[in-house]
Structures are given as structure tokens and as C-alpha cells.
UniProtKB/TrEMBL annotation:
<dbReference type="InterPro" id="IPR029001">
    <property type="entry name" value="ITPase-like_fam"/>
</dbReference>
<keyword id="KW-0378">Hydrolase</keyword>
<comment type="similarity">
    <text>Belongs to the HAM1 NTPase family.</text>
</comment>
<keyword id="KW-0460">Magnesium</keyword>
<keyword id="KW-0479">Metal-binding</keyword>
<dbReference type="InterPro" id="IPR002637">
    <property type="entry name" value="RdgB/HAM1"/>
</dbReference>
<feature type="binding site">
    <location>
        <position position="69"/>
    </location>
    <ligand>
        <name>substrate</name>
    </ligand>
</feature>
<feature type="binding site">
    <location>
        <begin position="149"/>
        <end position="152"/>
    </location>
    <ligand>
        <name>substrate</name>
    </ligand>
</feature>
<dbReference type="InterPro" id="IPR020922">
    <property type="entry name" value="dITP/XTP_pyrophosphatase"/>
</dbReference>
<keyword id="KW-0547">Nucleotide-binding</keyword>
<feature type="active site" description="Proton acceptor">
    <location>
        <position position="68"/>
    </location>
</feature>
<feature type="binding site">
    <location>
        <begin position="7"/>
        <end position="12"/>
    </location>
    <ligand>
        <name>substrate</name>
    </ligand>
</feature>
<keyword id="KW-0546">Nucleotide metabolism</keyword>
<dbReference type="Pfam" id="PF01725">
    <property type="entry name" value="Ham1p_like"/>
</dbReference>
<comment type="subunit">
    <text>Homodimer.</text>
</comment>
<protein>
    <recommendedName>
        <fullName>dITP/XTP pyrophosphatase</fullName>
        <ecNumber>3.6.1.66</ecNumber>
    </recommendedName>
</protein>
<feature type="binding site">
    <location>
        <position position="68"/>
    </location>
    <ligand>
        <name>Mg(2+)</name>
    </ligand>
</feature>
Amino acid sequence: PILVIATRNAHKTQEIREILGDRYQVMDVNDFPDLPAVEETGTTFLENATLKAIAISRHVPGLVLSDDSGLEVDALGGAPGVWSSSYGGEEGNHPKNNARLMDEMAGKDDRSARFRCTMVLAEGGQVLGDFSGTVEGRIFGEAYGAGGFGYDPLFAPEGHDRTFAELGAEVKNSLSHRGRALANVVAWLESRA
Ligand code: ITT
């Protein structure tokens, strides 16, 4: 079966493809010309994931899956949260995000944080279900590693002394917010089949 990811972030699509293996043919909105841009006007991951899944599934046949995700840092009152992709002031997962996070966290003792991911599955403009995953961890003072994307060089998951960017795709996918949310999606799809 084909699964269209309602994202323009190719890193998300890549990770979802790695996790699903050959169970699904994974595409995303970059494979479909002329889809409308979806405005993320929600204030929660679920609201934004729902907006993206409904909007894209109105234009694309079959199953559509959205991913709204972000980093919640306790010492920053939960920021950047749903605004993770533009925290540094520029749209679209910019390197300035990490510079800002390092600045804001300088001198902070409480390093605890988590990544959250909410996925919404939709078909023909109707929501079929929503699924979430979380990974606890902590924020490093400097960036380490070259793998992954976004905040990965600054985030070490619980139980590891290295960042997601150092641990590599296989370890990241096995315990990430996205991997956990996607496992719930797959369980739901398989129970329906
Ligand atoms: P789409 O809306 O098109 O899916 P986006 O990247 O703007 O793409 P979000 O609005 O969900 O998506 O923002 C997610 C941001 O959270 C992302 O840009 C990163 O800054 C951060 N993020 C999410 N998952 C991450 C991960 O696995 N590793 C590092 N950073 C992540």
C-alpha cells in the first residue's frame, strides 16, 4: 500500500521510510505538484497534525499521514514546543534554531527535555485516528554529531550519553518520538487489515 506523508520536511519522510521498510510505499507532498500550502494555525501538536492531514487528504487519494512534532524543554517552560521549526526566527527547520536553543540554555541546571510527535491518519478529508510518541532526554550545551536533523545534535535520549545525531538513524528510529508514534499507527493499520 501507498502512504502519503503530509509533510514538506524530507527528513521526516526519510525516517518514516526507514522505519516502515518495504511494508508501505512512502511518498510525501513533494511528490505531488500544486498541493496547497497548509497554514499551521493550531496551538497543539494534535491541532496542527489534524490540519495537515485533512487538508492534504482532500487532494491526494488513499491514506495520508501527518507528523507534527517538536522539542519541549522544561527550563524554558516547554518552549520551543509547537513553534520548534521557527524558533530561531526563520521558517523551515533553520540552523538558527540550534543557536537560539544553546543561547537560551546557557547556564541552566535543569537540562531535561522531550521530543513529542503526533501523527494523524486521514483519508478523503476524514480523520481515521491520531497517534503519539514521546522520548525523554536532555539538552547538551554544544552540538555533537552529524546525523539526523533539527535539534538532534543537542538532544541525548534517556539512557544514552550521546546525541541523536551521534547515535545514528537505527538507534534514533528505535526509540524516537517519531518511531514510537509510527509503531502505534502500524498497529492500528494492521488491526484494521
Ligand atoms: P511539516 O510541517 O511540513 O511537516 P516542519 O519541519 O515544519 O514540516 P513541524 O511544524 O512539525 O514540521 O515542526 C517540527 C520541528 O521540530 C522540526 O522542524 C524540528 O525543528 C523539530 N523536530 C521534530 N522532530 C525532530 C527530530 O526527530 N529531530 C530533531 N528535531 C526535530
